[in-house]
Structure formats: C-alpha cells, structure tokens
Amino acid sequence: MQILALWIPRPRCAATLLRRITLQLTRGQIFVGAEVEKIGLVSQPDQDVLADHVNFVIDGTIKSINARKEVILAAGVFQSPKLLELSGIGNPEILESISVPTLISNRNVGENLQDHLMAGISYEVQPGVMNGDPLMRQEPEQVEAAMKMYSNNLGGPLAVGGIGSHAIMPLLDLDRAITEQYWSAPLEITEQ
Questions:
Q1: CB of 138 within 8 A of CB of 157?
Q2: Does residue 192 sit within a domain?
Q3: What are the two backbone dihedrals, phi and then psi, of residue 38, each rounded to the nearest 5 degrees?
Q4: CA end-to-end span of the chain
C-alpha cells in the first residue's frame, strides 16, 4: 500500500491523521510536500475508464506512482475539480479550450460551487458574566485555564461550539448581482 500526502492547509490536522494512518500500515510510503498534477486514466475498448496512476511533483521533479487497487481523490473544493479536468474528466468544451482530451464527459465537474456564508451573533453581557472574549483576546491566564479544563475532563469553553448561523449560497447569482451593481453603471470621473 502506498499513500501520497499532499499540501494540506491545516498541517497539525494532517500530521495527526498521517501519524494514525502510518501506525496502521504494515508497509507504506508518504510523500510530504508533493503536489498532484494529474490522475492517470486508462481507457480500453468495451471497458470503463480507470485511474491507474497519479503524476505529482516533489522537489521540482515529476514523479508517478501506480495504483494497486484504487485512487482516492480528496483534494478539496477547488483542487478536486481542477485535477479531474486536467485528467480529462469534465465539460468537453472547457477541456478542449485547455487542450486536454476528454476521457469522461461530465458537464457538472467544477460547477455549482456554493459558499458557506456565516453570520455571527453579537451581544453585550453584564460585567461579571463569563463569555469568550478573554479567549478571543488570547489572555494567557484564561487560555491556560481553558486548556486545563479541557485536558482534565474534556470540559470548559473549548469543549463547546460557538453560536452562529449559516447559509449555503450559490456563487453564480452573487457574482451576477455584484457584476450588475458595480460594473454595469457608467463610470463617473470628476476632477477635484
């Protein structure tokens, strides 16, 4: 079994995950700091298209790793569709525009991206009422006390989530609204 570790935005989470995975492996190889360029796909007559290898760059060198069983793509909301398209999976019109041969036509790849908008709830409390402000300001005594509560009994302010609300909004409509609002009106240039 071989594992390919890529750039991950939260390194502490990645390190913990990779440590757990490697402890369970009887044999394996981890490439830290590698960036995938393309998933290698093979197509044979009367068969499905299969992913059989991954091309990646590490330390400026292009390398390839063969899949023994399967390739799992988990590169995030932006990189996953990018890798699919660079590998030949996506909208044929888009793939043709970047000179990538279409192996699997799927017009949904990279479409319908939605943003997770969040709105925090703010409130003012009476003096003496405990709230999260000291933690947000990272006051050393409060942070230490909160860490102690959590490490001793998995309790305290670090064991609970915040209050908030969120919505999933399509970016296409938001983009159109912004474009119409800011770019469709004629520019007014004034001299001072």
A1: no
A2: no
A3: -165, 145
A4: 69
Give 191's DSSP letter: -
**The domain that contains 64 carries what CATH number?**
3.50.50.60
* pLDDT per residue as tens digits for the range 170-190: 555 545 555 555 444 444 444
Are 105 and 18 within one domain?
A: yes
- pLDDT tens digits, residue range 140-171? 898 898 889 888 888 888 887 665 555 665 55
User: Does 47 share its domain with 79?
Assistant: yes
Distance of alpha carbon 65 from the chain centroid: 23
**Domain region containing 54:** 11-111
Structure tokens at 170: 């399509």
* CA proximity to 74, closest of 27, 26, 17: 17
Q: How many domains does the chain have?
A: 2
Picking from 52, 57, 58, 48, the residue whose alpha carbon sits closest to that of residue 39 is 52
d(CA 154, CA 150): 4
- Asked if residues 155 and 149 have their Cβ atoms less than 8 Å apart, the reply is yes
Host H or E run for residue 37 = strand 35-43
pTM, rounded to two decimals: 0.54
